[in-house]
Amino acid sequence: EREYYRQTVHHLQDILQTAPQALITDLHPDFLSTRFASEQTHLPVYAIQHHVAHILAVLAENSYQEPVLGLALDGTGLGEDRSLWGGELLCVHPRTLEYRRLGHFSPMLLPGGEQAILEPWRTAQSLLFGQGIYSPEGKKWPWLEEYARASEMVGQMLHKKVNCLQTTSCGRLFDAVSALLGFCQRIEYEAQAAVRLEHIQDRDEEGGYDCPLSYGQDMSILDTAQLFAQVYNEWGKGIPPALISRRFHLGLMQGLAEWAQGVSRHTGIEHIALSGGVMQNTTLARRLPALLQKRGLQPLTHRFLPPNDACISLGQAFYGQTLFSRGL
C-alpha cells in the first residue's frame, strides 16, 4: 500500500510537471499520507486539524476570505486534544489560519476503538451506558441475538473505561441510532448504517425531538446524548422506526440551527461553512442551509467537491498556499 502511494505521488508529479515546496498533512500520525510526509526530510511539513481542513475547503470553493463559523459534521478526525472530533462548531480565520473550537456534540465512548466504527451497536450500547442503562429494560436490544457475548465484554470495557476512545462524532451518533433501530449492526461499506437510517425516514412526519444546548465560558455543547435518549424512549414504546428516524433528523437539524444562531450572536459572524461526511445526507444537505437562512445566517456549502474526505486535500492546499503567501 505504501509503495503504491509513493508511485502515485511520483506519477502525478511527472504528468503535472511540478515539484512540491512543502507538505501539508493531517494531525493523525497513522495516516499513510502523514507517514509518507515524515519520510520526506528535504521538505518542510505542516500539519492541520482534520475538520479545519474541511472548513477551509468550503472557503476555497467559495473564494471567501473572511472569518466564518464552521460546522463540521463528520465521522472522526483527530483533534488538538488527541480525542476524536466529528461534531464541531469552529471559528476559522482564513487569512491568519487561526481557529477556535467553540462547541461540540456530547462526548461519548467508542468501546474497542476502531471496532466500534465497524460495529455500530457498540456505540449504541455506549450511549445507553452513559444514561445509566446497563442491560435491556423490557425490550431486547437488537444486537444481542448475534453479539450477546461481545456485548458483555463491551459492558465491562465501559465500566472499566478500558480500550475506549472518546469522541464527539456526528457520524457515530447516526450509527448508534441506526443500530438501536435494528437497521445495521455491522457495516460492510462506509456510512452503511447512516445511509439506511436516512433512507427509512417517514418523510410525511414534521415533528422533531428536542436537542438542548448548554453554554460554558469558553465552550458550547449540543446535547446529543439527550437527543439519543428520546430515540431510545420512543423505540422502547414501539414507535415505528421510520417515524423515529425522521424525528431524529429533524430534531438534530433544529438543534444545529439554534446552536449556530446562538454562537453567531456571540461572535458577530453570520457566515457559516458546512462540511463533513454527514453532509452527504440529502436531508441535511437540503434542509439545514434553509434552516440557517431562516435564522439570519449565511450558509456556505461545497460547490465542486463532495463534503466528505474527498475535499480534505483542497483545504490542506489552501492552508499551505496561505502559509507561503504570508512568507512562513
Descriptive account of the structure:
This protein is α/β, with parallel strands linked by helices and 328 residues long. The chain has a domain at 108-300: ATPase, nucleotide binding domain (Nucleotidyltransferase, domain 5). Helix content is 46%, strand content 18%. It is built from twelve helices and eleven strands. The chain has helices spanning 2-16, 32-39, 50-61, 115-118, 121-130, 144-160, 170-180, 192-199, 224-236, 241-267, 282-294, 312-325; strands at 23-26, 45-48, 68-78, 84-93, 98-105, 108-111, 164-167, 213-215, 220-222, 271-275, 298-300. A seven-stranded mixed β-sheet has the order 8-9-5-4-3-10-11, with helices on both faces. It has a two-stranded parallel sheet with strand order 1-2. Strands 6-7 form a two-stranded antiparallel sheet. α3 (50-61) packs across α12 and α5 crosses α7. The protein is globular and about 65 Å long. The relative contact order is 0.15. The model has no long low-confidence stretch (mean pLDDT 96).
